[in-house]
From TrEMBL:
The protein's name: EAL domain-containing protein
Domain EAL residue range list: 1-254
Coiled-coil ranges (or none): none
Superkingdom of this protein's organism: Bacteria
Organism, scientific name: Pseudoduganella chitinolytica
Amino acid sequence: VRMMHALRTAFSQHELFLMYQPQIDLATRRPVGAEALLRWRTRDGKFVSPDRFIPIAEYSGLIIELGEWVLRTACAELVRLRAAGHRDFTVSVNVSQVQFRHPQFLAMLRQALDDTGAPPEYVELEITESMAMEEPHLLVEMLAEVRGTGVKVAIDDFGTGFSSLSHLQRLQIDRLKIDRAFVTEITGSSRGSSIAEMVIQLGRNLGLSIVAEGVEDERQAQVLFHLGCPLAQGFLFARPMPAEDLMAWLAGEA
Ligand code: G
Ligand code: G
Ligand code: MN
Ligand code: NA
């Protein structure tokens, strides 16, 4: 309860902000987008992990307001990046289950796109694999509506759940994100690499885009590329950075 109050205060006092982590095309090594990641730095300079405060935001309902702010901020940043000449660049936003299920979610999404002028086809929502497995009928409808706006959808942390091929086939999604755990194992045991390999094959068979998460060294990048994974994200390329730094980083990559 104390943390719930602290989080509310933090949000109203602008202690929450977004960092952006670039996503890279493994063939050309050029940036193709960035994932927006929420951060909380308290007034005494301590960082609180989203793994700790997102569940509290969900439980308290604050996630509705907070999630809207995240989406609007990321859309506004996308517009700024485009104005600076980065026109083929996508911004991805994590969406929690509570937010996605909220009756006003679609209206909120449309309003955020309208108000910011963000082109929907360069906005991507990341939903988790566990969300993708619940209540198939509702989800199929929701995804169709989201896709109707032009916004893209990725399944985050893929490989940690148990989505079947037939289930995935029914969902209108654009992209799978291979969970960091399987990327870490890729240069270790053959069992480890076989999971990443399977996810890549699955994505390719369904005509989906694939992003490997948590790529930390060159060997992992090489193996992923040879397995047919087109995109990657991780400390090897860039850490999550504030919006101002992203603009400078992209200018340096050009
Ligand atoms: O960036 P980091 O690894 O600390 O993120 C931890 C978790 O918090 C990740 O699973 C990420 O998806 C989640 N997360 C980060 N930013 C947001 C956000 O804006 N909204 C939601 N719902 N989750 C987020
Ligand atoms: O669950 P989600 O994919 O949304 O969370 C992404 C999280 O992973 C972010 O918090 C980000 O800081 C973290 N991350 C991104 N790249 C790397 C990496 O190369 N190594 C590690 N250990 N964490 C990473
Ligand atoms: Mn994510
Ligand atoms: Na993830």
